[in-house]
Amino acid sequence: MPQGFGRHQRVAEQIRREIADLLREEIRQVNISLLTVTDCEVTRDLSYAKVFYSVLNIDERERAQAWLDGAAGFLRTELAHRMRLRSVPRLSFVFDPSIERGMQMDALISAVRRQDDAHSDEPEISGDSPATKAGESS
């Protein structure tokens, strides 16, 4: 059997899109700044789905997790109306720290670049600078 996207992977991607769409409609009522569905993993038997999310304001993480856990049944019911599946997977929501880690890495890289630029702007102290050699050859 050829390796490729299995059915559970296609279902996971469809669930990710549908949950993102549902959250776009429902999240306005909860007053959570920006909640993004980053990934979804579904078991091979399609009984459980782990939905990964991130929030723009890290201070809203606990509130978002509590709301998502409470809304899991509603979201599963809405998925049942939107998708053609015999049984819709049970949803669990997991915070995805990858965006936060990426921002931290970006900040570290920027700091190193600034430090490197600061070192390259300093004048050379040794007597072997090109200006000194040009003056000696005259």
Q: How many discrete domains?
A: 1
At the first level of CATH, the class is Alpha Beta
Instruction: Based on Cα principal axes, name the global outline.
Output: elongated
Helices and strands, in order, run as HEEHEHH
Structural class: alpha+beta
Query: Treating each run of at least 4 consecutive H or I residues as one helix, how many helices?
Result: 4
Q: Low-confidence parts lasting 5 or more residues at pLDDT below 50?
A: none
**N-to-C span:** 78 Å
Radius of gyration: 26 Å
Descriptive report:
- By secondary structure, this protein is of the alpha+beta class.
- The protein has one domain (7-117): 2-Layer Sandwich (GMP Synthetase, Chain A, domain 3), CATH 3.30.300.
- The chain is built from four helices and three strands.
- It has helices at 7-26, 61-82, 98-121, 130-136, and strands spanning 35-42, 48-55, 90-95.
- Strands 1-2-3 form a three-stranded mixed sheet, sandwiched between helices.
Could you name the key traits of this structure?
138 residues, alpha+beta, single chain, 3-stranded mixed beta sheet, elongated, GMP Synthetase, Chain A, domain 3
Secondary structure elements and pairings:
Elements: H1 7-26, E1 35-42, E2 48-55, H2 61-82, E3 90-95, H3 98-121, H4 130-136
Parallel strand pairs: 2-3
Antiparallel strand pairs: 1-2
Helix pairs in contact: 1-2
Write a brief caption for the model:
This protein has 138 residues and is an alpha+beta fold. It is built from four helices and three strands.
